[in-house]
Design a protein that fits this description.
alpha/beta, Rossmann fold, Dihydrodipicolinate Reductase, domain 2, 2 domains, six-stranded mixed beta sheet, binds nicotinamide-adenine-dinucleotide
Length: about 350
Amino acid sequence: MPVRVAVNGFGTIGKRVADAVAKQPDMQLVGVVKTQPTFGARLAIERGYPLYVGGDGRLDAFRSAGIAVAGTTEDLLGKADIVVDATPDRVGREQVGKYDAAHVRAIFQGGEKPDVAEVSFNSLANFDAATGKQRVRVLSCNTTGIVRAASVLRGKYGVERWDATLIRRAADPTEVHKGPVNAILPTFQFPSHHAPDAQTIFPDLPISTTAVVVPTTLMHLHVNHVRLRRPPASTADVVTAFRETPRFQVFRSADHVEGTPQVLEFARDHGAARGDMMKNVLWEDGIHLSGADLFFFQAIHQESIVVPENIDAIRAMTGLAPNAGASIAVTDLALGLRS
Ligand code: NAD
């Protein structure tokens, strides 16, 4: 029997998670929730996803727009084993009572505080911690990127000290009212919230993060300096370690991928749905070892990087896969992240 999955909130993250669920052999997408009868609501219908109305949305507004709806959030929860909450920051927490009343397991996103769930989650780092849990929180996009990289570096070389500067995209492409349009904005918080968030997974990770916002919608970029405990033999050794780990894309020098625009062009060229890049992106030329000091850049596609993690969290919580490797293999094949 496939696990029945509901998606509450059908925006940037929700529509990608819904599409990803629909592609998994062991899951059934039982419906998605919209608040307004927008083009997103029509998209759900076009894709054959049962559509439900939530938040302050009104059934009659959908019906008068000619959009067929199957009921309300509560009706959908009655048909689901698990719900992926993809509502805006802090709205997820308001849904907890609803999920508990319907006795469904729930996955929250990184815009919620960690205590919304029993555990924060990353597939490579702590799959087993989500086994059997009722409420799990998938890390935010930047923290997912950091924790994936930490899973490689901690395990293989040990981390003595990690300083990261996060160059953050100002907005997602559809967020036309956000900025800045022409500024570089330091975030006056030391460390930025990303370091403590990474430590919800690896409490002993000696990481410090700072953040800057820049006028782009095309991915975040992390500038990392890591002092390793057991220095690798060469830079090539580190390149291989990243390449051999699922969900890492390491571009070669000859690829001439100069920055984030070419990364997303690469994704589009390869037919990735929505032009998404769900892997951490590194460059051979952007990885440099000097003694025990490792420097590397990594780019993170904010709109899609957390999608595979949401899928693996469903498997961990419901017992669909025995371990991380088994789940990642199925997820990544279904999403075209491996052949
Ligand atoms: P979004 O605004 O694109 O989508 C949220 C959707 O939820 C919208 O369609 C909105 O209409 C709908 N919604 C609002 N209230 C609702 C309610 N009560 N019930 C049902 N639906 C409701 O937001 P997003 O970017 O998809 O973010 C969702 C979550 O994912 C947040 O926690 C965010 O921090 C996290 N996240 C976002 C990104 C990113 O870069 N976009 C990356 C990683 C994680």
